[in-house]
Amino acid sequence: MATAVGPAFIRKTNAIEKLVRSKLFWVLFLLLGFSYPIWKSLNRTLPPDLPIIATVPEFQLISENGQRFGSQDLKGRVYLANFVFSRCPSVCPKMLGDLEKIQKRVRGTGTKVAVVTFTVDPEHDNERVLYDLARKHNANPYVWTFLTGPDKDALFKLYRDGFKVGIEQNPKSLIEIAHSEKIVLVDGESRIRGYYSFDTNDVNKLMIDVGLLINRPSTKE
Fold it and tell me: What is the pTM of this model?
């Protein structure tokens, strides 16, 4: 005896299922997914260029290793200039300790960034004294250089007129030297682009500005 079979149920495909199964949908989805981040990156607003404050004149001094070192050795490199002396009884030890931390923060930039410490007491801080100071603070010789010179007046002129920082020695004392406690940011063309304190917020801003300089094409005056 034959069994009656009822009509089969046919499920209709809705519009969303049709869309998902469409090859065109996935092609468009992938194109939009990849193109939007690219469009966003190309159209984002970048921070303005850092100001050009002054140009540091050419100089050649003596490093902690007894070698001649100067502006030609820094050409094309962004560098952080600072001013200390080994007999400093107050702020210099802390500044050097902070610079040791900054050195670690810029090590990922390879040879693009340098730290340069200038003594304000060249009569005492010869290359041997600076060598010991550099070793004490774990200075990487490929990144951090300590500089002195034989002519104190010429050094002070470079600091005042070149780096635009204050410096004054008490004529009645060999170890009372008032000097800048700022970090001077200098670009690869020897142009001063900013001054920063050792405050945490200022150092963080310095790191951002260093990144801008090494990743953005140079701006001519």
Answer: 0.76
